[in-house]
Amino acid sequence: MPKKIKKKIEKNNPLSRQSFLHSLGVVAYIIIVAFVMMHGDSWFGNMNNILGPIAFLMLFTLSAAIVGLLVFGRPVYLFLNGQKKEALSFMFHTLAFLFVEAIIIFVILISYNFLVS
Q1: Helix (H) or strand (E) holding 57
Q2: Cα-atom radius of gyration of the chain, to the nearest Å?
Q3: Domain extents for the chain?
Q4: Using CA atoms, how far apart are residues 26 and 63, in angstroms rounded to an integer?
Q5: Could you tell me which residues come within 8 angstroms of residue 55 by beta carbon, excluding any fewer than 6 positions away?
Q6: SS3 content of the chain, % helix, strand, coil (to 5)
């Protein structure tokens, strides 16, 4: 992260830095899961039995829990400790950072597809 942006985030709101890191954690986790799903056939073989859907649903449930904790865990903790304004700020900052990161990923994807074709 460029120093100028980092200083601005830390200066404006100390929770912004933490929410930015949480959003990066979500993106990193999504990249890991996407990598596993892309290579699942070669790693685990073709699953024509009950184990394939079970594995998918277990991964789906685990993903919901991990991403839920990264996005909502700290805001709930802050809210329960009486820091309601900080909790809402943290949650909305995290969601805003995720939105920006999603836009960046889609722009990269569109640019890549445009260059390849």
Answers
A1: helix 51-68
A2: 18
A3: 17-116
A4: 10
A5: 44, 47
A6: 90, 0, 10
Where does the pLDDT of residue 5 fall: very low under 50, low under 70, confident under 90, or very high at 90 and above?
low
* Beta-strand runs (E) in 1-117: none
Q: What is the pLDDT of residues 25-77, one digit of tens each?
A: 999 999 999 998 888 778 877 778 888 889 889 999 999 999 999 999 999 99
Predicted structure pTM score: 0.78
Q: Which residue has the tokens 């933490």?
A: 18
Question: How many angstroms separate the CA atoms of 50 and 97, rounded?
Answer: 38
Q: Which residue has the tokens 């009950």?
A: 50
Distance CA 113, CA 102 (A): 16
Rounded to an integer, the average pLDDT of 108-117 is 87
Q: Using alpha carbons only, what angle is made at residue 68 by residues 63 and 74, rounded to the nearest 5 degrees?
A: 140
**Residues 14, 86: contact at Cβ < 8 Å?**
no
Q: Half-sphere exposure (CA, 13 Å, Cβ side) for 89?
A: 12
